Each structure stands twice: as structure tokens, then as C-alpha cells.
């Protein structure tokens, strides 16, 4: 089976082990969230991703997706025959492929006809996968302010000026994340597993590695959604 053969690395990692797969292997359904990035930009780099949804497809002919919301668009960035890079997550697998804009439909509503994907790459997302981030957090026990600089479902890396606590002590983190444009507060206990000191601009900085404990199912699901979202929208942040 395909899922058993997927490798454990992610797009953007130093060990790219993605596999070419067939369209049907993705098991996509109407409403599947995707992100489009234009390959033709003034900078020569792909554009920031535009959120869209699949509305249907005709095998070996076309892939139809909604026009991204007008709030995301400046002018009319989509032009027929332009190439776009597509990324999506379905289940615990991340996929990417490149297609062309075959037709832009404006009536009775706006949507895009994309060329049918042929060269699709897919990879399994490890539960322990981390992302680079910058979330302000507060340690409830001593009101210390800190910054979460990397995050996974099971733990985080935190920079602070003051010590969060002693090694192996339990602290409570309070921070807010953004998942699908919705702010979600997180209150979670964590064990301090490691600490390391460094200096930045002549100021001492303490990096602490923490492991989440007593994590609730809804918190794990929320963090999983955040990490998958970041992998799709900003693959360069994957660690």
C-alpha cells in the first residue's frame, strides 16, 4: 500500500524522500483545502500561498478549485497558462505538485480550471515534526515572558532572558496560536528537559527545551492542525 511506503521526511527538509504517486492515491474529496503559489512573480520566487478548495475534477483532464477569497488577492494575479505550485495535507500525508491555469471562470461564480496533476509527490508527516515559529508565551508560575521559537505536538524550544525554572520542573505555558485565521489560546503544562545559555547583542539568552505533559486530546489536535498548516503554507519553516 502507498501509505506504508511513504518516507518520514517533509518538503523542504535536507533529506527529501518524497515519492511520485497517482492522483487517486491522495483520496481527495470535494472541499479539500489546498494552497496555490504562483511560479511567475517579479522576484522570480513563488508567491505567497493562496488558500483554495477543490470543487471537483475530471480524470486526466482538469482539476477545478475555488478562486481564493478577494481579501487574499491584489488585483488579478491569476492569468491563464501561468504555472502554479499546489500543496495540501490530507490525513497524515503532505502532497505537492505543479499545474497550469487552463481557464478562469467568472460566471456564475469565480473558479479555476487547472491542468490535471501528473507529477505528484507525497510524504508522511511524522508526529514529532517541528516548525520554526515566534509565539510570545508567559510562564504562569512566575509570570516570566518568553518566546517559543520551535514547536511540535509534543514539546517546544523556548528563548527567555530569565530561567523558566529548574531542570525537570513542571511549568505552565500560556500562548495563542492562529489556525485557519482563528486565534486559539493554549494553556499547557511542560517539563523542562534541557537548558543552554548563549549571548545575543551582549545579552544573555537561555534556550530551554520542554516536553508537554498532561496534554489534552483537543490540544494535541489543535497543535497538529497548526503544524500541518505551517508545513503546507510555509514549508521553509519545517525543521
TrEMBL record:
Instruction: Cite the Type III secretion system flagellar brake protein YcgR PilZN domain residue spans from the record.
Output: 29-117
Q: Per UniProt, which keywords does this protein have? A: Bacterial flagellum, c-di-GMP, Nucleotide-binding
Q: Which domain of life is it from?
A: Bacteria
Q: Where is the PilZ domain?
A: 126-229
A molecular function GO annotation: cyclic-di-GMP binding
Nucleotide-binding is among the record's keywords: yes
List the Pfam families: PilZ, PilZNR
Protein name in UniProt:
PilZ domain-containing protein
Origin species: Nitrosomonas ureae
Amino acid at each position: 500500500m502507498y501509505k506504508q511506503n511513504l518516507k518520514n521526511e517533509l518538503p523542504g527538509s535536507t533529506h527529501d524522500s518524497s515519492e511520485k504517486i497517482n492522483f487517486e492515491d491522495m483520496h481527495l474529496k470535494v472541499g479539500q483545502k489546498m494552497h496555490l503559489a504562483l511560479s511567475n512573480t517579479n522576484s522570480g520566487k513563488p508567491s505567497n500561498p493562496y488558500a483554495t478548495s477543490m470543487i471537483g475534477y475530471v480524470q486526466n483532464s482538469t482539476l477545478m478549485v475555488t478562486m481564493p477569497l478577494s481579501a487574499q488577492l491584489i488585483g488579478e494575479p491569476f492569468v491563464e497558462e501561468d504555472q502554479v505550485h499546489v500543496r495540501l495535507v490530507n490525513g497524515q500525508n503532505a502532497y505537492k505538485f505543479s499545474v497550469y491555469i487552463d481557464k478562469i471562470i467568472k460566471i456564475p461564480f469565480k473558479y479555476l480550471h487547472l491542468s490535471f496533476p501528473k507529477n505528484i509527490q507525497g510524504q508522511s508527516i511524522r508526529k514529532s515534526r517541528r516548525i520554526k515559529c515566534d509565539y510570545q508565551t508567559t510562564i504562569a508560575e512566575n509570570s516570566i515572558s518568553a518566546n517559543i521559537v520551535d514547536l511540535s505536538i509534543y514539546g517546544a524550544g523556548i528563548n527567555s532572558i530569565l530561567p523558566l525554572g529548574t531542570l525537570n520542573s513542571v511549568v505552565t505555558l500560556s500562548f495563542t496560536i492562529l489556525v485557519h485565521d482563528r486565534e486559539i489560546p493554549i494553556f499547557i503544562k511542560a517539563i523542562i528537559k534541557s537548558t543552554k545559555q548563549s549571548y545575543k547583542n551582549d545579552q544573555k539568552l537561555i534556550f530551554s527545551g520542554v516536553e508537554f505533559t498532561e496534554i489534552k486530546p483537543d490540544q494535541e489536535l489543535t497543535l497538529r492542525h497548526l503544524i500541518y498548516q505551517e508545513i503546507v503554507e510555509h514549508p521553509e519553516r519545517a525543521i
